[in-house]
Each structure stands twice: as C-alpha cells, then as structure tokens.
Amino acid sequence: MGLGKERSKFGRYLDAQSITQSKLAVAAGVPSSTISRLAQSDRHEPSYSVGRRLILTLRAEGYAVGDDDFWTS
Prior knowledge:
Elements: H1 9-16, H2 21-28, H3 32-40, H4 48-60
Helix pairs in contact: 1-3, 2-3, 2-4
C-alpha cells in the first residue's frame, strides 16, 4: 500500500478498502501467496474456483463486488 509497487485492479481495491491480504486469504481458504500474486498485476488471473471463492468471501464480509469486477474469466 503506497510503496510504489505495481498493483492490479484487485490489489487497488483491497488497498482502498483496507482489506489485508492475510485476512482475506484465511477467510477465503486460499494461500496468502495467491492473494499476493493476484494483487500485484492485472496479468495474473485466478482459476474460476479461486476467483469465485474470493468474490463470495468479499460479499460475505459486506463488500459489494461483482463477478467481473477484477477478472475477465
């Protein structure tokens, strides 16, 4: 956050909402390395199941996110 690193749309969203990668990883049941990779660059996209799990977790936490807000697949 604010360290001059390249960030994906997903990463910028996490930053703007003050959502930590580690807490999201635990809540979604995915490795923190997966969250980190997805937050780095828009070149990275999750598998359908991981992307779906992340979206459903964010929604369960009260965030209004759409299925295609961050990734095309």
